[in-house]
Design goal:
The chain is mainly alpha-helical. It is 55% helix and 0% strand. It has eleven helices and no strands. Bound molecules: iron/sulfur cluster. The site of iron/sulfur cluster has 13 residues, from loops.
C-alpha cells in the first residue's frame, strides 16, 4: 500500500524531474575509476574545484598503478587545492593498491566490495555504482540531499545512513540514482542553506519549511 508520505514524495519527484531535466553527476569523469577518485576528492570540497584539479590529474594518472608509481608527496601536491590532501592521497593510493591486488585492476561493482576500498564509505560507493554502472544500490546523501530531505519532511534524521534508509523507503528504486541529482540541483539553485528562495520554489506548497508559511 502506498503511504501518504510516498505520495508526497512522488509529487516532489514529479516536479523536480520537470524542473531539472538535465540534472546529472557534476563530477567530470570518463570511467568508473576516475569517478571514484573524483568522489574521494570531493569530500569537503566543491565539485567545481575537483573538476579543475582532475583536468591535469586524469591526464597524468590513467590507471590505479599510476597512482602507486609516485611518492605520496607528489600526489599530495597534485591534489593540494581540494583540501585534506594528505588523507585523500592516502585513500587514493590505498584504494588503487586494493583494486590491483583484490580486483584485478577493475573497479568492483558491489557495495560490499567497494566498501573494502580505502576512503570509500556508502556515499562514494553509491555515487560510483549509480553513475558509472547504472546500479541503484542506494540513495546518495550529501549535504544538499540531507538539508532538503529534512526541510521537505522526508526524514527526521540527521545521520546520512539513517536519511538514506528513510529515502529508500519513500523514493521508488527506479529514481534512486536521479533523486539526489534533482535535490542537489534544487539545493544549489533555490533551496540554498542560508537563504532558501521559497517565493519562487516549485515545491513551496508541499514544503512544511517554507518561510512563506510563517508570514501572517
Ligand atoms: S519552499 Fe523553501 S524551504 Fe521548502 S524546498 Fe522550497 S526553497 Fe526549500
Amino acid at each position: 500500500m502506498i503511504s501518504d508520505k510516498q505520495t508526497h514524495t512522488g509529487e516532489i519527484i514529479k516536479r523536480l524531474k520537470k524542473e531539472y531535466p538535465n540534472a546529472h553527476c557534476e563530477l567530470n569523469h570518463t570511467n568508473a575509476f576516475e569517478l571514484l577518485v573524483a568522489t574521494i576528492l570531493s569530500a569537503q570540497c566543491t565539485d567545481e574545484r575537483v573538476n579543475i584539479v582532475t583536468v591535469n590529474l586524469f591526464r597524468k594518472y590513467r590507471q590505479p598503478q599510476d597512482y602507486l608509481n609516485v611518492a605520496p608527496e607528489e600526489l599530495e601536491t597534485d591534489i593540494h587545492s581540494t583540501g585534506f590532501y594528505r588523507n585523500k592521497a592516502k585513500s587514493i593510493q590505498g584504494a588503487s593498491q586494493k583494486i590491483i591486488e583484490n580486483f584485478g585492476g577493475e573497479i568492483p561493482q558491489t557495495m560490499d566490495e567497494l566498501l573494502t576500498l580505502n576512503g570509500v564509505a556508502r556515499k562514494t560507493a553509491n555515487v560510483v555504482l549509480g553513475n558509472a554502472f547504472g546500479i541503484a544500490s542506494g540513495v546518495v546523501v550529501d549535504t544538499h540531499v540531507s538539508r532538503l530531505s529534512q526541510r521537505l519532511n522526508l526524514t527526521e534524521n540527521t545521520a546520512p545512513e539513517k536519511i538514506e534508509k528513510d529515502l529508500a523507503e519513500l523514493v521508488p528504486v527506479k529514481d534512486w540514482i536521479m533523486f539526489p541529482h534533482w535535490l542537489i540541483a534544487h539545493g544549489r539553485k533555490i533551496c540554498q542553506a542560508r537563504k532558501p528562495k521559497c517565493e519562487i520554489c516549485v515545491l513551496e506548497n508541499l514544503c512544511p519549511s517554507s518561510y512563506l508559511k510563517n508570514i501572517t
